[in-house]
Design a protein that fits this description.
The protein is an alpha/beta fold. The protein has 11 helices and 10 strands. It has a 4-stranded parallel β-sheet with strand order 2-1-3-4, with helices on one face. A 4-stranded parallel β-sheet has the order 8-7-9-10, with helices on both faces. Helix 6 packs antiparallel against helix 7.
């Protein structure tokens, strides 16, 4: 388990009290302003939730994110002001199990209007794959073995979009028609993305890929691929000699060509494994944040770049 990424509940609770106290003087007026204003104040936990809120909410929402661009979501530490601001949000959109600091802060804040994306689709266990033991136990407080990376499957992400759309309709019924229209448009776009993946990965030289970050279990399952994680969910974890040896055997047997790394973490581990196994390296973005290094401006564009990278690495025909 990557202890570095787990923030003690007591520390979060203390920050919650401090944050709520610091903002208590302005909370009432701020909340009233949000309710009477033209746009809903929506707080998103990290980029995949932010993208949905912005696309579905459109001009009727003002979306802020707790995870700034370039910050690795699992490493997030919330400031007292961020935590205190949760009670002023008209709606909080998050994904339970991916960011312990956010999960604890929401519980402690007593925020009433929240949407947990994990409850809008079915979570599955992808922790039994090779190299996935750390992945299965990385996120404390979630269902044992449940993989939270649902946004990397366009079909599951569309299910989350539909659920969020319904929540926005309920929160702001005056603009329900617009939320439905925006949801339908996004779901159609995600359907097109799903079709592109199905067609693009239908015939390949190999069905196996190696990645430093075991985030692609849903994507692999959706399109009949096999994900081989180097060292679980932590993209910067050092693989054991035994794991490198196993990956070398897998690469030879399954004709693997590429070790994938991500944009928000060091590529050191991927390069180490690639060097020891004689493989290439490339980016497969888990889309936990968008920066100037991302191969695309938003979720759709980066997922299209991921498809191109997978086609190249798997030898798509």
């Amino acid at each position: 388990m990557n202890v570095r990424r787990l923030i003690p509940t007591t520390a979060v609770a203390g920050a919650v009290v401090l944050g709520l106290t610091a903002l208590s003087a302005c909370s009432t007026s701020d909340a009233a302003g949000h309710k009477n204003g033209d746009r809903l104040n929506v707080v998103a936990s990290f980029y995949p939730m932010q993208f949905l809120a912005e696309r579905i909410g459109g001009n009727h929402v003002s979306v802020s994110t707790l995870t700034k661009p370039g910050v690795e979501p699992h490493d997030l530490e919330l400031s007292p002001r961020q935590i205190g601001g949760l009670s002023d949000a008209d709606l909080i959109v998050y994904l339970d199990g991916i960011q312990p600091a956010v999960d604890d802060a929401i519980k402690q804040s007593g925020a009433q209007h929240t949407v947990d994306a994990a409850k809008l689709t079915e979570l599955e266990d992808h922790g039994t794959e090779a190299g996935g033991e750390e992945h299965a136990h990385e996120h404390e407080g979630e269902e044992a073995g449940a993989d939270p990376h649902i946004w990397l499957d366009p079909v599951k992400y569309a299910e989350v979009a539909k659920g969020l759309g319904k929540s926005l309709e309920k929160t702001d019924p005056d603009h329900a028609a617009d939320y439905r229209k925006n949801t339908d448009a996004l779901v159609t776009e995600l359907g097109t993305l799903n079709t592109a993946y199905e067609k693009g990965l239908r015939t390949t030289a190999t069905r196996t890929f190696i990645t430093t970050h075991s985030a692609f279990g849903y994507l692999a399952e959706r399109y009949g691929l096999t994900q081989e994680g180097i060292a679980g969910i932590d993209p910067e974890a050092e693989p054991s000699p035994a794991r490198i040896s196993a990956l070398h055997s897998i690469a030879e047997k399954k004709k693997v060509t590429t070790v994938f790394f991500e944009t928000l973490a060091s590529d050191r581990t991927a390069k180490t494994v690639a060097r020891d196994t004689g493989l290439k390296t490339d980016v497969l973005d888990p889309l936990e944040g968008i920066t100037d290094k991302s191969k695309g401006a938003d979720y759709i564009e980066v997922m299209q770049s991921n498809l191109t990278a997978l086609q190249k690495a798997l030898g798509a025909k």
